[in-house]
Amino acid sequence: GDSVTQMEGPVTLSEEAFLTINCTYTATGYPSLFWYVQYPGEGLQLLLKATKADDKGSNKGFEATYRKETTSFHLEKGSVQVSDSAVYFCALANAGGTSYGKLTFGQGTILTVHP
Amino acid sequence: EAQVTQNPRYLITVTGKKLTVTCSQNMNHEYMSWYRQDPGLGLRQIYYSMNVEVTDKGDVPEGYKVSRKEKRNFPLILESPSPNQTSLYFCASSFCLNCEQYFGPGTRLTVT
Questions:
Q1: From CA B9, how far away is CA A111, in angstroms rounded?
Q2: pLDDT tens string A30-50
Q3: Confidence bin at A99 (pLDDT 50/70/90)
Q4: First-to-final CA distance of chain B
Q5: Full 3-state SS string of B61-74
Q6: A53 to chain B nearest CA, in Å?
Q7: Which of A36, A43, A94 has the CB atom closest to B98's CB atom?
Q8: B81 — pLDDT class (breaks 50, 70, 90)
Q9: Residues contacting residue A84 through CB under 8 Å, at least 6 positions apart
Q10: A16: left (phi over 0), alpha (psi -120 to 50) or beta
Q11: So what's the pLDDT on residue A30?
Q12: Helices then strands (H, E): number in chain A?
């Protein structure tokens, strides 16, 4: 069935450091891919998305490219800020697979950015 | 403002006392879902709905009921809550099956 694997956390960085959070997926057909962010005590917010191979999603300085050949959707940001501290989730939607009607999530990666 | 709302945000109850968590969206979305979030287990879907009067089980439906009598509302019902249903619950909605889902702020439920 469909699945999403994220890099193990937590990740701790200094402000202005480069961020990469790895995400790989297993799915049949043509899933859509997403990154969500959850700030402490809040719900999940959509950070960015990509709906087909080679699409690049971007928002608030974050980027991720849908790589079908490596089944990956790694999240990157060139210079993180303290306010980026949160939990990041990679997810997929796949109407043609076992993710019918739902999002399949990775386990989440806790990011802490120090001043 | 486009949003998904849930009530209550926090709830402490006792085993066996029926409760309902409400969910409402103002985006005219056809698809709605309930998830629970647990440490170490991530987010798991409980139920989803593809339209009014159309609902189906997700990955962890045991002990829960839902209804979809109106397009905007999708309440989650726990008829006889148990301590293993202590969790953080999220309602979500989307425009289509492969689309992004928009999440409510969450309901933290404690069953003693």
A1: 25
A2: 899 999 999 988 899 999 999
A3: confident
A4: 36
A5: CCCCEECCCCCCEC
A6: 14
A7: A94
A8: very high
A9: A19, A77, A111, A113
A10: left
A11: 86
A12: 0, 12
